[in-house]
From TrEMBL:
It comes from the Bacteria. The keyword Amino-acid biosynthesis applies. One of its GO terms (biological process) is aromatic amino acid family biosynthetic process. Pathway: Metabolic intermediate biosynthesis; chorismate biosynthesis; chorismate from D-erythrose 4-phosphate and phosphoenolpyruvate: step 4/7. This is Shikimate dehydrogenase. It comes from Rhodococcus opacus. One of its GO terms (molecular function) is NADP binding. The keyword Amino-acid biosynthesis applies. It holds the Pfam family Shikimate_dh_N. InterPro entries: Aminoacid_DH-like_N_sf, NAD(P)-bd_dom_sf, Shikimate_DH-bd_N, Shikimate_DH_fam. One of its GO terms (cellular component) is cytosol.
Length: 277
């Protein structure tokens, strides 16, 4: 499987489809990991506007050397409507972030953001079972994380959002899936784990998305933001002695799940540069 000249006519393709696309890390990370494993696969960015997504996916269904597509902003919700089959967790979240051709002219979709978060958390910090959790940000990623934590046995998964109706809707959806949940203010007191699943923290001037007042070192604090790796929330939590998890760890933990979904051969999917948090 080792490759000399690359790419060749045998090279297979993974894609990441989004709009904008310049910010994505997947082409670099996946191409490096495939190379490290000796897999003849390249990951390429695919800049597709929302109005063109349906035509794009209709055309790409016949792409014979395509392993699959990672779906990113703003296509995750629309792509669920365009796949032939989606997993129960994708339907529960209302979105897909990974799709692959089904070999019969259709697409299979899954939502792996929540699984990535959960795997990183349980691997690095502690089991979720019995924990009281607050998830701040009730969009696609917040919903995926909240559902995954609920399924993993969190005793309560409360939610919050600057858009209160989104938080109410997510709490109701979690309740319908048997997860105890209510919409609350973003205050850490009383929780075992708080998660920022909103974009707050990407810009230096962003306010802290979660009030850590009164928090002790028993509290675990996680952030989905990948840039910067050390968000203000994580720095504040670290100063309190709390265990923390960053967005890069969630992203890294998702890679083996996606590799399995794309039906790639077993490999070493650890990033050589994975040393943050
Ligand atoms: P989205 O737009 O669907 O949802 C974001 C939600 O956050 C919205 O409901 C918005 O109202 C809410 N929000 C914004 N600012 C807030 C604040 N200060 N307090 C509370 N709520 C606030 O977006 P999404 O797809 O859910 O993505 C959210 C973030 O997750 C993005 O920053 C994205 O880059 C990141 N992300 C990380 C990973 C990873 O692996 N680490 C994977 C996917 C997405």
């Amino acid at each position: 499987m080792a490759r000399n000249s690359f790419p060749t006519g045998n090279t297979r393709v993974l894609g990441i489809v989004g709009d904008p696309i310049e910010q994505v890390l997947a082409p670099t990370l996946w191409s490096e990991l495939c190379s490290k494993n000796g897999f003849d696969i390249v990951c390429i960015p695919m800049h597709v506007r929302p109005a063109d997504l349906k035509n794009f996916l209709d055309g790409a269904r016949g792409w014979k050397n395509l392993e699959g597509l990672i779906v990113t902003v703003p296509h995750k919700i629309e792509a669920l409507k365009l796949v032939t089959v989606a997993t129960a967790r994708a339907h529960a979240t209302g979105a897909v972030n990974s799709i692959r051709p089904d070999g019969q002219g259709g697409w299979i979709g899954d939502m792996l953001d929540g699984g990535g978060f959960l795997a990183a958390y349980e691997d690095r910090i502690r089991p979720v079972r019995g924990q009281r959790v607050l998830v701040v940000g009730s969009g696609g990623v917040g919903a995926a994380i909240a559902l995954a934590l609920g399924e993993a046995g969190a005793s309560e998964v409360d939610v919050s959002d600057v858009n209160a109706s989104r938080a109410h809707a997510l709490a109701a959806r979690l309740g319908a899936h048997g997860v105890a949940s209510k919409s609350v203010d973003p205050t850490a007191k009383g929780y075992d784990l708080v998660v920022n699943a909103s974009p707050a923290g990407m810009r230096p001037e962003d306010p802290l998305p979660i009030d850590l007042d009164g928090a002790t070192s028993d509290l675990a604090v996680a952030d989905v933001v990948t840039k910067p790796a050390d968000t203000r929330l994580l720095l504040a939590a670290t100063a309190l002695g709390c265990p923390v998890q960053g967005g890069l760890q969630m992203a890294e933990a998702q890679i083996p799940l996606q590799a399995e979904f794309f039906d790639l051969p077993p490999g070493d999917w650890r990033l050589s540069s994975s040393n943050s948090h």
